[in-house]
Fold this protein.
Amino acid sequence: MKKTYTKGNVSVLWEPEKCIHSEKCFKSLPRVFNPKRKPWVDLEQSTDEKIIEAVRNCPSQALSLKEEIVEDTPMTEIQVLKNGPVLVKGKISIEIDGKKEVLDQNQIALCRCGASNNKPYCDGAHSKINFEAL
């Protein structure tokens, strides 16, 4: 399910299946993003600039700006390995504890089992704890 909310030149796309409920949208603009209201998005309650800023801060991209969907964006590949880590391939920027880092390599393995001593990176601990998942 996808829903588009539009006010003038601003169109916000909402994809609820992507939402991780960080509440960043609600905390930044509670008059615009109010899950207790139907519809829960009311773009008339703020300025375009504040709405755009709030949407760009959505960590899961469940909220996105419709015009920012660009077809020529380089493809990032994500592969979930059975009983193992998540492989991310492409140009990679990662933020850990508020510190953003652009990585030199074009592939990383992220821990999925929670047992790595090098989180968020995989150190192979999944095999030691017999981690099983898709």
Summary: The chain has a mean pLDDT of 89.
